[in-house]
Amino acid sequence: MKTQAAILVTSKQDLVIDEIEINNPLQEGQVLVEINTSGICGAQINEIDAVKGVDKFLPHLLGHEGVGIVLEIGKNVKHIKIGDRVVMHWRPGNGIQAETYKYFWRDKDLNSGWVTTFSQHAVVSENRLTPISKSLNSPHIPLLGCGLTTVFGSLENEVTLRLGDSVLILGVGAVGSLSIIASKLKGAGEIVAIDKNSDKFELARSCGADSFYAINSYNSNEIIQEIVGGGRFFDLVIDTTGDAILMSKSYEMLSKTGTLLIIGVMPKAQKLSINTLDLNMGKKIIGTQGGRSLPQVDVPKLVMAIENNLIPLGGLFYKERNLGEINTSIKEVRDGIPFKQYIKMT
Q1: Are 105 and 263 in contact (CB under 8 A)?
Q2: Which of 183, 273, 296, 297: CA 20 to 30 A from 217?
Q3: CA 55 to CA 288: how far, in whole Å?
């Protein structure tokens, strides 16, 4: 079969929208999914921009959070059935981790990962899919594949957030917005949000932040002094930016036993600049890989919470576009426009 896809051909360039072919039969553990909606998160921007180094797999497909319908299953697939509505996620869950699929594009093989979502159809490894109810109705379902599981997993598995603790959120993108929502649900006291884009004020407040500051290289020292004025420091800082300078400054804003939780991915060339004596005295720095979430456990719990209106996602601003407009959405994510970007595939 043939299907439309967005392809990363050259790092730091627009994706190429073109037709690809799904010719090879499904192998053990592989599942063919018709994708309804894909999210775009910072991980894809990092991948396009080769933040982790030279991309050895070009050209290839992208995307790791989405929702779709199962059309066909390969041998020995047991946790997924034809007709299932599934969340597509990058963290491994139940089932087989299959070989990555080789598509065909312009007379050559086209690489992919265990899950990709920037196409109308994708062949996905069984363990990157979790069935969900067909009745769940929310534009934010793709977040179950990354943002929601990462944030709630991080607050559940990586750090201890006590009732009344003060929280500083670095970056008010999708993950930062969800961090505000989740911290409030966990009983945080004061929640302060920081972003380089002053347009994020309304988004931060709609998600539950008590205050918001626009910070950049010109006003950072002034803003930090304003935030910590009167001896105010934070029990938990959650970084979603990967910005080494901002993280280094926020480390100084922690209480004596506070924790810096790093969710954002730092560019390879950057380094943290801190005095490690504070680590000996009680401060902590913790990194996380997707909050150590278990999709087969966490996705059903989050679905139930969304169905019962226990997670207030109404404060998230979002935009929906079609596949042909994906480069516009990517540009807006890169520029810090205060909307979660979704691509409608079908």
Answers
A1: no
A2: 183
A3: 23
Sequence-distant (6+) residues with CB within 8 A of 105 are 7, 18, 20, 21, 59
Sheet-wide strand order for 211-214 = 211-214, 191-195, 167-170, 234-239, 254-262, 284-287
**How far apart are alpha carbons 261 and 157 in whole angstroms?**
11
The predicted pLDDT at position 218 comes to 65
3-state SS assignment for residue 27: coil
Same fold, 2-146+294-344 and 159-287: no
State the pLDDT at residue 217.
Answer: 64
Q: What span, in angstroms and rounded, lies between the C-alpha atoms of 326 and 318?
A: 14
Give 141-160 pLDDT, tens digit per residue. Answer: 999 999 999 999 999 999 99
- Taking only the tens place, the pLDDT of each residue in 61-82 is 999 999 999 999 999 999 999 9
Beta bridge partners of 103: 110
pLDDT at residue 244 greater than cutoff 80: yes
> Could you report the per-residue pLDDT of 288-302, keeping only the tens digit for each?
999 999 999 999 999
CATH class given for the domain over 159-287: alpha beta
The pTM of the full predicted model, rounded to 2 decimals, is 0.92
Paired tokens of 212: 């918001």
Domain 2-146+294-344 has CATH 3.90.180.10: yes
Residue 52: per-residue pLDDT: 83
Beta strand pairing call for 340-344 and 318-322? parallel
The residue extents of the domains of the chain are 2-146+294-344, 159-287
Bridge partners for 129 per DSSP: 88
CB 262 within 8 A of CB 243: no
Q: Strand order in 60-61's β-sheet?
A: 60-61, 2-8, 16-21, 103-105, 108-110
Contact 259/159 with Cβ under 8 angstroms?
yes
Of the chain, the end-to-end C-alpha distance in Å amounts to 16
C-alpha torsion angle, residues 95, 100, 101, 107 (rounded to 10)? 180
- Measured between alpha carbons, how far is 74 from 306 in angstroms, rounded to an integer? 31
